[in-house]
Amino acid sequence: MNPKTETKAISSEKSAQLADEAEQLRIDINASEAGALAPFSPATQEPTRFEEIVDSVTAILGDLPIYVTSFVSEYQRPIVTVGLFLSALVTVRVILAVVDAVNDVPLLAPFFEFVGIGYSAWFVYRYLLRASNRQELVQDISALKDQVVGHHSS
Length: 154
Description:
With 154 residues, this protein is mainly α. Helix content is 75%, strand content 0%. The protein is built from six helices and no strands. The longest helix is centred in the middle third of the chain and has 28 residues, at 76-103. The N and C termini lie far apart (121 Å).
């Protein structure tokens, strides 16, 4: 037999076999009648308790940015106040730790005490002994207060 003829015979047998299989698998669909197709049926299984919890948690986490934004916009002043209070508390703790570390250095604590006593004596002599100097101190304090608060005396 010729190889070309043999190939044609095999392919025609194969196509006939495939046509028979397709005929067996053919399904007739009549779309002219309403309801000919089966309706979609959702899963009849009830969601478990775990799935309900997961659904509620994901819903809350999905809305979390909205909750946080509304909370911050509503309570902005108290949040800033608490933040400033906590930062002041941390600052005081750090300062106390530094002072404690300095006090542990030999001869440094007595030296700082001596400097503090000397500065206090100078301050009393300079500003507190005479009435004119006390008036000068009050003016300096009010000028500093005006600079901090933002009032300028012109």
